[in-house]
UniProtKB/TrEMBL annotation:
The lineage of its organism: Archaea, Methanobacteriati, Methanobacteriota, Stenosarchaea group, Halobacteria. Residues 282-316 form a coiled coil. One of its GO terms (molecular function) is ATP binding. Transmembrane segments: none annotated. Residues 1-262 form the Alanyl-transfer RNA synthetases family profile domain. This is Alanyl-transfer RNA synthetases family profile domain-containing protein.
Length: 423
C-alpha cells in the first residue's frame, strides 16, 4: 500500500504537525500531506511555516521536504503547513486522466501493457505496450473515449489489497517496476475507475447491471498517486499526439485543463479556417482536402511530363559531333531542375545501351541559379570522368556513376561549358 497520506487523503491540503528533524533546508515532519515525487507524479509545492517547499522526496520510506531557504523553526516546533491546492489538483486531474486513457486503451488496443507515465506542466505522457499500430484514427478514438468517460461521471476509488490477490486479478494493470510506490508490506494500493455514477455520489467501483450481471469497471490499476473522486472533476482533456520512446512502446501525450482548452482552440481555428477556405462544412473538409490533393498530384504529374518533354525537345536541338572516336551530343536545356534533366538523360542512355542506336555521350547544360551539367554515357568513357574534366577547368563539384553524373557551381557561363566540350 502507499505510505503517503496525500494519496489516501488527496483533498487534505492544510494541516498542523510537529517538526521531527531539520538539516539545513531539509525538513522531516511527524505527519505530512505533501506528496513526495514518485511513479511519474511530481512532488507537491506549498509552505511549511513561512518557508516555501520546492521539493519533496522519499528517502528510506520517509518524506524529506526541501525548502527554498533554511527555516527558523527547529525540531520539536509545531508548524502550519499548506499544500499548493492549484498544483495538487492539477496533478490529481492529470493522474486520473492517465488512468482513464489506459481504460480507453483496454477497449481499443491489443496486447495492452503499461510502461509508465509522467506528469509535466504542459502535458501528461503515458507509455503503452501494444501490438496495435496507433495511428491518427486511433488517437481520435482514444480522445473520444477519454472525454466520454469524463462526461459519464465515473466514480474513482482506492483500496489496499494483498499483493497476491492483485496479481490473480486479470483486469488489474500492475507493473511493479513502475508502481513501487503503490506497494508496501505485502499489500498494494489499487485505484478503480468504475461504472457511471448516475448521480448517486460515490458509487461502488463495480456495479450490478439491470440484468443482474457484474459490470466491469473502466479501469483498475496499482497506483500510489493522488486522484480525484470522480472523473467529472478531471475537466477538459485533449489527446495531443504519439511518439515511440523505445522498442515496443507507444507514448501518448495528453493535456488537461487550460492547456487542453488551448489545444482545442488551435484545432478549432484550423478547422474553421479550412471550412472557410474550402467553402464546405466541417464533415466535408476531409473529403474536399483529399480531392484537392489528388488534383494537385495530378497537376504535378502533368507539369513534370510537360517539363520532361521540354527538356527532351531542347536536347534534340543540341549539337552532335565526333570526339575521340565516339559520338557526342551537347545541348543547353535552360532553367529546369537538375534531377529532371538527369531522368531524361538517363532514359536516353538506357535506350542507347539497349538498341546501340544514338549518342555515346550526352551532356545537358542548364542553369538553376548557377550553371550545371548532367553527363550520360553509353560508350567507353566514364560519366564521372567527363564531369571531372569540367570541374578541373571551371571549379564546382559533383558526382555520380560510370553511366550518369551531375555537377554544378561552375565558375563559368553556359557558353564556356559548351565551348569546352566541343573543342
Amino acid at each position: 500500500m502507499s505510505g503517503q497520506l496525500a494519496a489516501a487523503e488527496p483533498y487534505a491540503t492544510r494541516f498542523e504537525t510537529e517538526v521531527t528533524a531539520v538539516d539545513g533546508r531539509q525538513v522531516w515532519l511527524e505527519r505530512s500531506y505533501f506528496y513526495a515525487e514518485s511513479g511519474g507524479q511530481p512532488a507537491d509545492r506549498g509552505v511549511i511555516g513561512d518557508v516555501d517547499v520546492v521539493d519533496v522526496q522519499l528517502v528510506d520510506g520517509e518524506q524529506v521536504h526541501v525548502l527554498e531557504t533554511e527555516p527558523t523553526f527547529k525540531a520539536g516546533h509545531r508548524v502550519l503547513c499548506s499544500v499548493d491546492w492549484s498544483f495538487r489538483m492539477y496533478c490529481m486531474r492529470a493522474h486520473t486522466a492517465s488512468h482513464v486513457l489506459y481504460g480507453a486503451g483496454r477497449r481499443l488496443l491489443d496486447d495492452l501493457g503499461y510502461g509508465g507515465f509522467d506528469i509535466g506542466e504542459r502535458a501528461v505522457r503515458v507509455d503503452l505496450e501494444t501490438s496495435t499500430t496507433v495511428d491518427d484514427d486511433i488517437l481520435i478514438e482514444l480522445d473520444e473515449l477519454v472525454n466520454r468517460a469524463v462526461w459519464k461521471s465515473r466514480p474513482v476509488s482506492w483500496e489496499d489489497v494483498p499483493v497476491a490477490d492483485a496479481r490473480e486479478r486479470e483486469n488489474v494493470a500492475f507493473n511493479e517496476a513502475t508502481e513501487d510506490g503503490a506497494l508496501r508490506r505485502g499489500r498494494v494500493r489499487l485505484v478503480t475507475i468504475g461504472e457511471d455514477d448516475g448521480g448517486g455520489g460515490n458509487a461502488t467501483a463495480i456495479r450490478t447491471t439491470r440484468t443482474g450481471s457484474r459490470a466491469e469497471p473502466w479501469d483498475v490499476a496499482a497506483c500510489g498517486g493522488t486522484h480525484v473522486r470522480n472523473t467529472r472533476e478531471i475537466g477538459p482533456v485533449t489527446v495531443l499526439g504519439r511518439s515511440n520512446p523505445g522498442e515496443g512502446l507507444t507514448r501518448i501525450e495528453l493535456a488537461v485543463g487550460p492547456r487542453a482548452i488551448d489545444r482545442r482552440t488551435v484545432e478549432k481555428r484550423a478547422l474553421f479556417d479550412a471550412k472557410r477556405r474550402l467553402g464546405t462544412g466541417a464533415k466535408e473538409v476531409s473529403t474536399e482536402l483529399e480531392r484537392l490533393i489528388e488534383d494537385r498530384d495530378d497537376l504535378e504529374d502533368r507539369l513534370r511530363r510537360t517539363e520532361s518533354e521540354l527538356v527532351s525537345a531542347r536536347l534534340d536541338r543540341g549539337e552532335s559531333f565526333e570526339r575521340d572516336g565516339e559520338r557526342w551530343h551537347v545541348a543547353t536545356v535552360g532553367d529546369v531542375e537538375t534531377e529532371l534533366v538527369s531522368d531524361v538523360v538517363r532514359s536516353r542512355i538506357d535506350v542507347r545501351a539497349e538498341t546501340a542506336e544514338g549518342d555515346d555521350v550526352i551532356v545537358a547544360i542548364g542553369e538553376a541559379g548557377r550553371p550545371f551539367a548532367v553527363v550520360g554515357r553509353a560508350g567507353s568513357r566514364s560519366a564521372t570522368g567527363i564531369l571531372d574534366d569540367l570541374t578541373d577547368a571551371f571549379g564546382g563539384g559533383g558526382g555520380g556513376s560510370e553511366t550518369i553524373a551531375q555537377g554544378g557551381g561552375f565558375d563559368a557561363t553556359i557558353d564556356d561549358l559548351r565551348d569546352s566540350l566541343m573543342e
